[in-house]
Amino acid sequence: AAGDYRLVLETADGSSGSTDIFVSSPKSKNMGPLKHDAVLNVGKEALVVSLPVSKRDVVQEVDFSSKLKFSCRLEDSSGNNLEQHLDVLRCGLLIRPHGEMYHVRLWTRRWTGDISVKSMAREIYPFSGGRIKAGKAARVKVAVSGRYKTGDRLFCIDASKSGPLHLCSGEASLKKGDVIFSPMGKKSKPRLSVREVVFSSRSKSKMTWMLGRKPVWQRQQAGSKNTLHLLAVRSRNGTSLQPLCSLQASDSKNRALFRLAPGACFAAYGLATDALGSWSLSKYGSSGNALVSIQRLMATVPSAARSLGEGSHELLWSRQVARYSLPRGPHRIRLLLPVESWGVLLGPDGSVDDICTPVPGLRQCDLFSGGGTLLLVSDSRRRAVVDVIRAVSAPSVHVLDGTAEFWPDAATKKVLKIAPGKETRRLQANGVKECWLEMDDGFTSEACSVDIPAGTSGRLELVLNAGPAWVVVAKKEDLKEARWGESGRKDGTPERPGQSLSMARNVALPKNGGTWTFHVPSVSLVSLKSDSGLCALIDPKGDITAVSDGAGCRWHKLLSAGEWKIRVRPFAHRALYGELGWIRTQPELVKEGVGRQRWLMPADAMAFSFKLDRVRDIGIGVKADRDILRCTVVDGEGKQKAGGCLTLLRDLSPGEYFLVIELGRDEKPVMLRPVVLGLHGTGKDIPETYLREFFHRIGGQG
After folding, report:
1. In this predicted model, which residue has the larger pLDDT, 295 or 7?
2. Sign of torsion, CA 636 641 647 649?
3. Distance CA 222, CA 301 (A)
4. How far apart are CA 306 and CA 477, in angstroms?
5. pLDDT for 582-601, tens place per residue?
6. For the chain, N or C: smaller number of CB within 10 Å?
7. Could you write out the three-class secondary structure of 432-444?
8. What angle do CA 497, 501, 505 make, to 5 degrees?
9. Number of Cα atoms under 13 Å in the Cβ half of residue 82
10. How many Å apart are CA 452 and CA 432, to the nearest integer?
11. Given pLDDT bands bounded at 50, 70 and 90, which one contains residue 489?
């Protein structure tokens, strides 16, 4: 279909290398409706045939065959790929049109050949048992969702859907309701027997599974209503594919809970007699299959619970499950669990509130209880250390729909809920040690900057160090405005233009912050400093161009002429302190070659300018006694052209450019000389090898 596409390449082991990519798109030729016993000649063009639309509810069987290898693809009316087979001698498809239009696209690898076409319409009839009638498709009623034994060489589709039938031979996961089964072949009459396969206490608790994106589900049934259902799905062989999982039951109002981890998924449900377990691979990442290990437990929970008071406890138990009642009111529960053991927190209504998932070693985790029951489940060493600590109040669940700010005094963990948005948004975090994002559509990420599709919600887990940290979710073009946040007005920051801020005259920061205006007469290197708070720099047009990290700001910015604003507000509800001020310096015009020596103090910067009268290649560098400087080249509009203190800029357009050099606050003073090559002469080319040898001779930073 027409549109923009993205090709993603990834390696299984993370190694680097080169890849050759060839992309070609043959022209398509519309062949009209598909005809039985037709012969299609396919060559340079891809042939597109339309499947017949029947007034009856049928399964359309189509068979393409050739002596030469070809490829086929089933598409819907919008051109979406529903099923494809590449480089085959035979392509068989079963489609239930159900009033919808479908097409088949046929092509080869630039050779010409004949493709024979066979087709037939299979009438759908109510199945009563035995074998499926020749040339027919059977409709079967499934009493309950689960895993079922079916038959050999069978395909099926939910009766509420249209489109291609998928392989359902041997065993298949079927949902409650009507399902349509069909074989392939005019004379085929396979036996169909829909018998549920239920996981029970006699089934093996561990197994391996070659898993794909199509969900697999199976019902598990216990003999007692007092049963806790647990499910763990883990990727094997170091694959990066993310499994998903769930446990649920239709006959209970208790909540099901799942947790994702890199390459693993865990679910808990109870207390109930049966549960429907489900597992699949996330739709994000590679489209291939992955070998996973699956462990299911149905643990009978004792009816009696031992009371667990406030304080530290070393617990020992003899059965698979230990049950402890927790004191009322808000309490933090700190657990140290043995290998491959679960900690499950039940709320006062008996549903699962939170879990500690199993790991191969000792597991330390924190839960929060408002009163309820703690279940410890282990088949290894049945021993645990539990601290029950009374909290001042219940932790508030923060819903992230904009920006959130934190300033912990020590390392801590925060969990945020992400509300769904109407458009694609960018999630960005700063000052965060670790991020773990899990969305309700199966997307997971350990990155602290990621796009979130429209309409999806999820859960974000942050590991924070002591100090300022923030996280924001907003449209990419609105990140800076969202980063500043609406809380600026709530904290008392005035929205009026603000008072004038004179150069080199600091002012005391008010408790609730404020807005200040300063005038830049010409293009200048401006140094802005605020001892505390969140800073926002606003250009003469009123747009936010920079936002600080929350611990004040120390900026060196090349600013254009005009009226600029600096806005400061408290960060994470911390009162402001200290001073705010600014100074400016005029960029110094440099000439060809090595400039005179300058001195640069820590936390300071200097700027140089040069002009081009024609398109040229320019070499930029800095001769310094230590490799500790940060360098940026920008054009007259403030757009960055290069970063680094040794760079070759090719095909620079005529105009004015600036080199900004900065030294970090924790460094010692440094002596430097700016270097610019290529400003004059008739030729514009500077060999890169010459540039690097030149800077090596003069001791330049690179």
Report:
1. 295
2. negative
3. 12
4. 56
5. 999 999 999 888 889 999 99
6. N
7. EEEEEEEECCCCE
8. 165
9. 21
10. 19
11. very low
DSSP 23: -
Which secondary-structure segment (H or E) carries 482?
A: helix 479-484
Token digits of residue 201: 């206490």
* 180 three-class SS: strand
Amino acid at 357: T
From first CA to last CA, the distance across the chain in angstroms is 47
Q: What is the largest CA-CA distance in the chain?
A: 96
Amino acid at 66: S
Burial class (CB within 10 angstroms; exposed 0-12, middle 13-18, buried 19+) of 595: middle
List the structure tokens of 230.
């647990």
Are the beta carbons of 455 and 422 closer than 8 angstroms? yes
CB 197 within 8 A of CB 148: yes
Burial of 250 (0-12, 13-18, 19+ CB in 10 A): exposed
CA distance 34 to 96: 15
Q: Is 692 helix (H, G, I), strand (E, B) or coil?
A: helix
pLDDT at 359 (0 to 100) = 92
Nearest CA to 550 among 607, 476, 474, 491? 491
Residue count of the chain, please give it. 702
Kindly state the helix (H) or strand (E) to which residue 171 belongs, with its residue range. Answer: strand 171-174
Helix (H, G, I), strand (E, B) or coil at 640: strand
- What tokens appear for 460 in the block? 């974000």
Q: How far apart (Å, rounded) are the C-alpha atoms in residues 488 and 61?
A: 64
Per-residue pLDDT, 494: 44
Q: And the tokens for 357?
A: 């998932």
Record the tokens describing residue 158, joined without a space: 């939910």
Q: What is the DSSP letter of 492?
A: T
Contact, 647 vs 678, CB < 8 A?
Answer: no
| 172-214 residue pLDDT tens | 999 999 999 999 998 899 999 999 999 998 888 899 999 888 8
Q: Which two tokens stand for residue 367?
A: 């839960």
Number of CB atoms found within 10 A of residue 138's CB:
26
Q: Are 298 and 211 in contact (CB under 8 A)?
A: no
CA distance 209 to 215: 12
Beta pairing class for 670-677 and 616-624: antiparallel
Cα separation of 3 and 79, whole Å?
Answer: 11
* DSSP-derived secondary structure letter, 533: B
Of the candidates 650, 648, 649, 644, the residue with the CA atom closest to the CA atom of residue 622? 644
> CA-to-CA distance for 374 and 437, rounded, in angstroms?
26
Considering the entire predicted model, what is its pTM? 0.66
Q: How far apart are CA 642 and CA 635, in angstroms?
A: 10
Which two tokens mark 93?
């498809």
Q: Are 335 and 385 in contact (CB under 8 A)?
A: yes
8-state DSSP, 477: G
CB-based contacts of 5, cutoff 8 Å, min separation 6: none
Q: Are 403 and 569 in contact (CB under 8 A)?
A: no
Q: How far apart are CA 49 and CA 71, in angstroms?
A: 14
